[in-house]
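Q: What does the assembly look like in three dimensions?
Context provided by user:
Components: two
Sequences:
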Amino acid sequence: GAGVSQSPRYKVAKRGQDVALRCDPISGHVSLFWYQQALGQGPEFLTYFQNEAQLDKSGLPSDRFFAERPEGSVSTLKIQRTQQEDSAVYLCASRSSVTSYNEQFFGPGTRLTVL
Amino acid sequence: RKEVEQDPGPFNVPEGATVAFNCTYSNSASQSFFWYRQDCRKEPKLLMSVYSSGNEDGRFTAQLNRASQYISLLIRDSKLSDSATYLCVSPRGTGGFKTIFGAGTRLFVKA
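A: Here is the predicted structure of the complete assembly.
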């Protein structure tokens, strides 16, 4: 079956541009996570959705980062006025339930490069 | 101190060797953990869940030591295909719905 998909796979932005990253979770998955992964580091939690509700956004680095999941399915992570330090791989993951002990399934990520 | 800490390695081992990684965590309320595997430029994929004292799956054994607050991953009879980064994961950080990943331990298995 279809896994988690993300688009675009690669994005190059000039400093100051706005970008939007899309995540299509596995159909029916309740939980959705966004992570930021810098080179040589583990994924860093950004935000969590349970259906359409954003229950935790404590990992968003600044108010330039905004995420939404308006219909409880597809999610978009938006970064305004991109900075060079935003360069990273942005991973989306979905989970079938709210139970934290179930597996998260990851998408292939979007590699963002800010020049 | 980070909530989940791992030795970054790299661990360089010959085929057939046994290798073990440790991961320490600071949130004593955490009930279970995961080991994920991440290949270069790929997404993380679940390797094992760790509940209660431990879990075994073929060549892989994960153990949880609550008293000392660490989990371990043991790989027996290493294969070339085991070369990857192994991420220790706590599914619930202190407060909220955070999932906390360690920085990962790199393993290189050589012929």
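Follow-up: The mean pLDDT of chain A is 95.
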